[in-house]
Amino acid sequence: MTNEFGEKLDDEFGDNGVNNGVNNGGYHKEKIAKGELGQISKIQEELDELKDAETQNVKILMLCELADIVGAVKLYLNAKFPGWTISDLSDMANLTEKAFQAGQR
């Protein structure tokens, strides 16, 4: 099994704390459903992990989860919107921010 960056996840037990599609080991205290790479479910998994990290108030883990969200979004873009990039999303986010600042959207 690999993560969204192609890194091997299997631990010495061969499951990285994952049983029946639920992450219930490692850094997280909550049971977190495993998502599928390139799908919304993977983005949701990373969001759930971020929520858990925030509940634990572990800032470095929160930052890691934010990075994992970016990775999951990149894979989603590749799967669903070939040719589009995080940079394209950032450009749209910047336009939206300017619209909100101007009071017009």
Radius of gyration: 16 Å
Number of strands: 3
Shape: globular
Number of helices: 3
Overall pLDDT score:
84
Residue share in β-strands: 5-15%
SS-derived structural category: mainly alpha
Largest sheet: 3 strands, antiparallel
Strand order of the largest sheet: 1-2-3
What are the low-pLDDT stretches, counting only 5+ consecutive residues below 50? 10-19
H-E order: EEEHHH
The helix fraction, in percent, is: 40-55%
First-to-last CA distance: 43 Å
Note down, in words, how this protein is organized.
The structure is a single chain. The relative contact order is 0.11. With 105 residues, the chain is mostly helical. It has a domain of 66 residues. Strands 1-2-3 form a 3-stranded antiparallel beta sheet. The protein contains 3 helices and 3 strands. The protein is globular.
Task: List the main descriptive attributes of the protein structure presented here.
105 residues, mainly alpha, three-stranded antiparallel beta sheet, 3 helices, 53% helix, globular
